[in-house]
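ingest -> validate -> predict -> emit
validate: passed (alphabet ok, no gaps, 262 aa)
predict: started
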Amino acid sequence: MNMTKTENRPTILITNDDGFFAPGLRHLIRIIRPLGKIVVVSTEQPMSGMGHAITIKTPLRLKNVDKELDYEEYICNGTPVDCVKLGEQVVLKRNPDLVVSGINHGSNASVNIIYSGTMAAVIEACIDGIPAIGFSLDDYSLQADFSHLDAFIARIAETVLDKGLPDGVCLNVNLPKKSEEPIKGSRVCRQAHARWVESFDSRLDPRGADYHWLMGKFENDDKAPDTDVWALENNFVSIVPVKYDLTAYSQMELISGWKFDE
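emit:
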């Protein structure tokens, strides 16, 4: 994308759920910044697992921490979805041309998308009719190496800026962790049918009251080679087209036949 004049450059809103200082966000900004006018609205604190939560009981605040030609940064005390809403309605006062979220520290493949604050921001933008992409690295470490991702992220973002996305569709992009072998390429996949098998570590505090830590193990019995989990396990970038419309259209006829009115 060869854009030199400021007025012709696309406006890109960047957010995340790992907090303003997360290395993944900083790396994403470096990759995306040459592609357009950048507005960053990031969470003040880590918000992993917040899903599509919004803030309605406390005031939302934005703090501008950087402002220069074609680049602005804000810290928000709310959730990733709050960041998108404020970025559109308060900072830009219009819709951006693209929303990108991440780079998340940890995979958002399979059922993880349901819990993900990273992807909630993407889905919020999609609801508003904005092309949007979530980027996640299959490495939970704050010291994760992002250096092998630049070309893939830039190419995916440039392609979406150029071609757009179908109405009601956004992209969940998961990237393999750094290894001795280069990434093999990218695959458009479906979401694997996997789940978290959960338990609680229950304890007593010094006053004798119960408290509980959520624990869990990710289990995937869906080993088909067309899934996002398979792609990551085999060193491919997985690209899953996602819809926010949760209607099970294939089951509407069956459920309609149950005759609830009788």
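The longest strand covers residues 194-204.
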